[in-house]
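Thread: "does anyone have the structure for this chain?"

Original post by V.I.:
We have the sequence but no experimental structure in hand. Need at least a predicted one for the grant figures.
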Amino acid sequence: MNMVTYLHMIYPDSKLEEKLWGQGYEVVVGIDEVGRGPLAGPVAAGAVAFTKDCKVVEGVRDSKTLSVRQKNSLYDQIKNAVKGYGVGMVSEKEIDEIGIQMAVLKAMTLALRQVEEMIGRRADYLIVDGVNVELIGEYPTMKMSKGDQKHYSISAASILAKVDRDNLMIKYSEKYPEYGFERNMGYGTKEHMDALKEYGVCDIHRRSYRPVAKCVKEGI
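Reply from O.Q.:
Generated one for you, tokens below.
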């Protein structure tokens, strides 16, 4: 599958994965995180094992460019097409305890472990979205900027993580309807910021994040 731009949309390709297969890395795992920036809820990471015998799902691209319907449609297709998959989540409370950088690392590690448990072996090579993420163990790894726009396995991983995290935030919105989590997914939109000022901080807010910490300090 080639990377093409159609109506300003960039579709990733699998050239990097194919190159790595040619170098002897049979199980290439693409990894991406979702939810580093929100003021509430967990951070999530997706991982997919992509091998020579896997099918490419048409329409896979950076999850941020997909509609809810498109993401949900691709979600099951990806799971059925890849060798193995996983989604790791780290709660807002643990983010406050260990910091977002280490929380992202833990979420990615959890996702990778799920993949390896599913395929019954260790991954050969990791390709990870983000140049400032921590390395996972002793794996050969390539970190990159905008990997979810360029490389198929990372894009597929981003969709799995995004759908799982969004679904969780929708469930949270039923318990905390004031904040509009079903729409903003915990990000600091005007709606969310206004709700913070009016209703204060709820149990799933990240208290180490500045706008939330400010509300706590002011006793809102």
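V.I.: this helps a lot. The chain has two domains: 5-174, 175-217.
O.Q.: and Strands lie at 5-6, 9-10, 28-34, 43-50, 84-90, 125-129, 141-144.
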